[in-house]
Amino acid sequence: MALLVDTGILYALADADDGWHGRARKWAAQVREVLLVPVTVLPEAAYLIRARLGASAELAFIRSVAAGELTVESVTVSDLDRSAALMNLYEDIGFVDATVIAIAERARIGTIATTDRRHFSAVRPRHVATFTLVP
Question: What's the pTM value of the predicted model, to 2 decimals?
Answer without folding.
Answer: 0.94
